[in-house]
UniProtKB/TrEMBL annotation:
UniProt organism field: Lysobacter arvi
InterPro entries found in the cross-reference section: DUF5076
Protein name according to UniProt: DUF5076 domain-containing protein
Pfam family, one: DUF5076
Gene3D superfamilies: putative pyruvate dehydrogenase
């Protein structure tokens, strides 16, 4: 297994610290706003969440399901794998990780 430094060196040309572009549809909607910023930091996830987000737990569940769906679609497009296979694999990883969470 490659060390973290070796993996980082391999991805230096792919990953950048610049902010991602705002999606065109968000620019077209004056009522749109940013919800989340996610960063991979030392094999963990760091995030900023818009402090003015409102809603019920079910609304946040819908947000997570939409995020999951987008992640599956993008990964399948990037790798050429069947989206159904990607969904199954990501869901299994999610379910396993969910049982391991220490911050609940």
């Amino acid at each position: 297994m490659a060390s973290r430094a070796a993996r980082r060196k391999d991805t230096d040309n792919v990953l950048a610290r610049e902010a991602l572009a705002v999606p065109a549809v968000a620019n077209d909607d004056p009522a749109s706003f940013e919800l989340l910023r996610l960063w991979a930091v030392d094999r963990s996830l760091a995030m900023s969440v818009c402090p003015s987000i409102e809603g019920e737990p079910a609304d946040f569940g819908t947000l997570l399901a939409d995020l999951f769906s987008h992640a599956c679609e993008r990964y399948a497009l990037r790798t050429g794998q069947a989206e159904s296979d990607v969904r199954a694999s990501m869901f299994l990883a999610f379910a396993c990780r969910f049982g391991d969470l220490t911050r609940m």
